[in-house]
Design a protein that fits this description.
By secondary structure, this protein is an alpha/beta fold. Helix content is 48%, strand content 13%. Helix 5 packs parallel to helix 7, helix 16 packs antiparallel against helix 20 and helix 19 runs parallel beside helix 25.
């Protein structure tokens, strides 16, 4: 029997029945598949409750029996990590010269220096130390977040080196900052995490039961239906946010859990509740390793092992109960009523400020560790894969594990763990649904964007109201098209903060293979399309008939498609920049500058034939060029429509002020000189002539449309590679 226990903070919280590991009988029946094990995850909630007269605490102790645990020991030996400090430009004075600039020599700073220790399942290992002591660096080293070749030493689990794929599947890393979607509720946030991390073979109802059990484990039942919230929307408290952040990373019940400052910024009560949650997680069969800044006395009672660091070196390693003995033998006994960790940290800071530093404490710790006796690590006789498989069969929800073979010695099913828990299309659907849910609850964002497009369209329509077909009307049409096409690109700049706000959520989720980067890029594109269609239709409908553009219904449809393609290309371009540029303001500066260059080289201000040869390449990569030429061809492609007749030939010359009669006589004189009859109704310039004058002769309007669309896909591909190369999330 197994069920959720939330009453006692010190009890374990298994989610699978212990009897599941005994499905196969000793008579040679086949071992249960992982699908069979997962099938029972929901049934455990409906199993019989304890007898009315039986003590609740007694039942909980039965569930936390040692027989369920599978021993894991994470050992790290002689971890050393150094970084090169950037050269700094300094001013110095030399005897023979005035003050001159000089560059200091590059230096190497050691962040970790021979760190060794171990952590065990069912326990919490807390890494403590002052700021800059190397706490976060050590957690990153243990979590495989430092690039290979940079870290010296070795990290093993049960004596075997973990490969990156395996570690991502069986571990989770909770960052210091709470990176959550503000408009999702607590329950939705955890449910989306379950959709990502739990395999497709597990039904949605079973995933929901897992989420509900986790909500009970985290102690956030009262906030389950409340949105996360942000600066503009009231949501859950800081302690609840931290517990939700932990929850989304432990939804698959990992064997290893790393946390960077999980109590940072919390009051003492919230910090205590977070550590109690971590204690329950550890007792459910996980190994919890975290950094702490300065734990209180109540927090200290929940910790199993402590590791104090000072400037990258170990100054104490052991259980909290060993602290008094350690510092007494060192010659600095801890006062009776003083917090042990506060005393230790204060003494370490005092030694760091002294001439010899903490060298004496480091050396004393080495001798103390050699003298003290520790219980030997239990030997299981299982390989790492067999131990992980046994842990899975006893209830650990490792992402997407599937059974392959059964060992002959222990009759334990061996599981293979795929890189991703779900196929591509499942990730795509879940990502799209999450984004749409988050955006749907912020209608003001799209409303502002739609309002900006409508206002811009209204201003353009009223400014260029019902243009005629005179030579001036032609110039005004050219100006309208250039401004309209550039406006579509500038209005896409608001897509810049979208990914910048989600960047660290994306990096956290993809760091441990919650989903593929390609799934994110495609879902990001699909979610953006409906809004682009609405914006394009609004702008096209506002301007097409107001300005008096040519082509009728078919002309409007093509005009709408060009606007949509321009929005698509502009949105893709800005999205790509958001994957490269880390800051919003810097991104806006770059977007505005590059779009201005695109407009300059589009062919409106200077024809293609007059662009200098050394700049002609920029003309062909201008995003504004192709939609601009497409709408020009759409407008001026009618061979029967005339734009300059008879005396209108003088409209763009100083002779425009000459009386009408004089213009007619000048026209007659020109007719005699040219040997052809030119009257006031003779067509002198057609749309084809205008296209020739503008240098729009290379591509058809449909080819211009397809090129614009292709630019959009090109920048989406570049966005994917920017994510692939820029989100490794590892120190070098």
């Amino acid at each position: 029997m197994s069920r959720v226990v939330a009453a006692d903070d010190n009890m374990s919280l298994p989610f699978f029945s212990p009897e599941l590991s005994h499905v196969s009988s000793c008579s040679g029946a086949s071992s249960p598949t992982f699908a069979q094990l997962l099938k029972n995850v929901g049934d455990t909630r409906n199993m019989e409750t304890p007898a009315p007269g039986r003590d609740q605490h007694h039942v909980d102790m039965d569930l936390a029996s040692p027989d369920r645990s599978v021993p894991f020991v994470l050992s790290f030996n002689d971890l050393t990590y150094s970084v090169k400090v950037r050269r700094k430009f300094t001013w110095r004075r030399v005897p023979s010269d005035p003050i001159i600039g000089a560059s200091s020599e590059g230096m190497t700073k050691t962040l970790l220096n021979g760190i060794s220790g171990e952590a065990r399942d069912g326990e919490i290992l807390a890494v403590l130390g002052a700021s800059g002591s190397g706490k976060s660096t050590l957690i990153d080293a243990l979590a495989n977040r430092i690039a290979k070749g940079s870290l010296k030493g070795n990290v093993t689990l049960n004596g075997e080196v973990l490969n990156s794929k395996m570690q991502k599947a069986i571990s989770a890393y909770v960052m210091q900052d709470d990176l959550l979607f503000p408009m999702l509720t607590v329950e939705e946030t955890l449910m989306f995490a379950a959709e990502f991390r739990l395999p497709r073979s597990l039904s949605k109802s079973k995933k929901n039961l897992r989420v509900q059990a986790l909500i009970e484990q985290l102690g956030i039942r009262n906030a389950a239906k409340t949105i996360i919230g942000d600066e503009g929307h009231r949501g859950i408290s800081g302690g609840e946010r931290r517990r939700v952040s932990i929850g989304i990373d432990i939804i698959h019940d990992p064997i290893l859990l790393f946390l960077d400052e999980p109590t940072s910024g919390l009051d003492s009560t919230s910090a205590l509740s977070v550590i109690k949650v971590l204690k329950r997680i550890a007792q459910s069969g996980s190994m919890v390793i975290m950094t702490l800044h300065q734990p209180s006395y109540r927090l200290l009672r929940l910790l199993d092992r402590l590791l104090f660091l000072s400037r990258g070196q170990t100054v104490f390693s052991g259980s909290p109960a060993m602290l008094p003995r350690f510092f007494t033998e060192f010659g600095h006994p801890i006062p009776e009523h003083e917090n042990r960790t506060e005393f230790a940290l204060d003494l370490i800071r005092e030694l760091e400020g002294s001439a010899g530093g903490t060298r004496s404490l480091v050396e004393f710790n080495k001798g103390f560790r050699q003298r003290k006796t520790e219980p030997r690590t239990s030997q299981t006789g299982l390989s790492l894969k067999e131990a992980i498989s046994a842990s899975i069969s006893k209830g650990k929800l490792v992402s997407g594990a599937t059974t392959t073979t059964t060992t002959t010695t222990t009759n334990t099913p061996v599981y293979t763990i795929p890189t991703f828990a779900n196929p591509f299309w499942v990730e795509l659907a879940v990502l799209a649904k999450r984004s749409m849910t988050n955006y749907r609850r912020q209608p003001e964002l799209f409303g502002i964007r739609l309002g900006a497009v409508l206002v811009t369209g209204f201003i353009l329509a009223t400014m260029f109201w019902q243009l005629d077909s005179s030579p001036k009307g032609v110039q005004e049409r050219l100006g309208f098209f250039a401004f309209a096409m550039s406006t579509t690109f500038y209005t896409c700049a608001d897509a810049l903060p979208v990914f910048l706000q989600e960047r660290f959520i994306f990096m956290r989720e993809t760091a441990y293979n919650a989903y593929r980067r390609s799934s994110y890029v495609l879902s990001h594109s699909l979610v953006a399309l409906p809004s682009l269609v609405i914006l394009s239709l609004a702008f096209a409908a506002t301007t097409f008939w107001g300005v008096g553009l040519d082509g009728g219904l078919m002309g409007f449809l093509f005009y709408f498609l060009v606007i949509l393609a321009a929005f698509w290309a502009g949105s893709s371009f800005v999205t790509f920049l958001s994957g490269v540029v880390p800051h919003v303001m810097l991104g806006y500066t770059i977007v505005v500058a590059i779009l201005a260059y695109f407009l300059l080289f589009s062919g409106f201000f200077i024809n293609r034939d007059r662009i200098p040869s050394y700049w002609i390449w920029f003309h062909y990569i201008s995003l504004v060029k192709y939609p601009y030429e497409a709408v020009l061809i759409n407008e001026f492609s009618d061979p029967t429509k005339c734009f300059v007749k008879g005396v209108q030939i003088f409209d763009n010359t100083p002779l425009v002020a000459v009386p009408q009669g004089m213009k007619v006589r000048l026209l007659a004189t020109m007719s005699k000189s040219l040997g052809m009859r030119i009257t006031s109704s003779t067509c002198l310039t057609t749309g084809y002539d205008i296209l020739q004058q503008q240098g729009v002769t290379d591509l058809s309007k449909w080819n211009c449309l397809w090129v614009t669309v292709a630019w959009g896909f090109f920048f989406r591909i570049l966005f994917y590679f920017s994510l692939l190369l820029g989100s490794k999330n590892k120190r070098r």
